[in-house]
Amino acid sequence: MVYVAIAITMVVMTISGWMLLEAFKHYELKVSFDTVTKDLLGSKVNLLNNITVYFVGGILLYAYITSSGLILQDVLGLNAKIASASFVLVFSAFVWHSTRAVDRISVVLIAFMILSFVFGAGLAVKVDMAVLFDTISEENAYAPYAMAMLPVALTSFGYHHSVSSMRAYYGDETKAKYAILGGTVIALSLYFLWLFSIFGNLPRANFGPVIEQGGNVDALLKALGSVIESEQVANAINTFSMAAILSSFIGVGLGVF
């Protein structure tokens, strides 16, 4: 059910991004989301739209910043607040510099995520099918959990505030359209690989402590550490997590900026 929910979300969010491109086609190349919304729907709707966009963007940035601080605290032994502040100061520079800088660093980060799973392949190889399909549990109703996951899945593919920036960057709607499709396909593939590896190694009962701590990434990594003995795999998970958080941070940051 989880895989189906994410796949459906990916399709819907890809098509909705293309629809935004269609709306932008009638305006100059460097037009903003704000300008188009105001012109088509009026000032009041535009105000509401801006509030929701910046609210979602702010919440996501807060989540990425705090998660990065907690991971860096465990890895480097830094204070979580100092680590979070350092994270923002260093990597917001890419967003401030240019869309091209975000493009280049995003490619590097995706390569890091792929390599982290290649060198830490033990996580995928050690998948236990009984754990993956939860055959030992008496709980069989998964649809409610899949429905509860939909808001998370929506934000996972929430790139729409950057569509105008992509259009201006590529200088052509067709190139931006393929960029959107490529980005959502890559994201979907990485999500599938992540879910397969996590759900195949961590029993459902072990998710309790993770949920109690607000579902933070560092709590998930600690829970995985209790069932995975390989230090190489643990390092690979940390690398993947940091690369994923950083790529998300600069992507959302670009849209908000």
Descriptive report:
- The chain crosses the membrane at residues 6-24, 45-65, 77-96, 108-127, 142-159, 179-199, 236-256.
- By secondary structure, this protein is an all-alpha fold.
- Helices cover 79% and strands 0% of the residues.
- It contains 13 helices and no strands.
SS-based class? mainly alpha
Terminal residue distance = 35 Å
The radius of gyration over CA amounts to 19 Å
Extract low-pLDDT stretches.
Answer: none
Mean pLDDT: 82
Largest sheet: none
Strand segment tally: 0
Q: Helicity range of the residues?
A: over 70%
Task: Tally the helices.
Answer: 13
Q: How much beta, percentage-wise? A: under 5%
Q: Give, in order, the helices and strands.
A: HHHHHHHHHHHHH
The coarse silhouette is globular
Q: What's the assembly state of these chains?
A: single chain
Short descriptors:
257 residues; 0% strand; cell membrane; MFS_trans_sf; cell inner membrane; Trp_tyr_transpt; transmembrane helix
Show the helix and strand layout.
Elements: H1 2-24, H2 33-41, H3 43-76, H4 80-97, H5 99-119, H6 122-125, H7 129-132, H8 143-156, H9 163-170, H10 173-199, H11 207-212, H12 217-225, H13 231-256
Helix pairs in contact: 1-8, 1-10, 2-3, 3-4, 3-13, 4-5, 4-13, 5-13, 9-10, 12-13
Membrane topology: Multi-pass membrane protein
Organism: Vibrio variabilis
InterPro entries: Amino_acid_transport_2, MFS_trans_sf, Trp_tyr_transpt
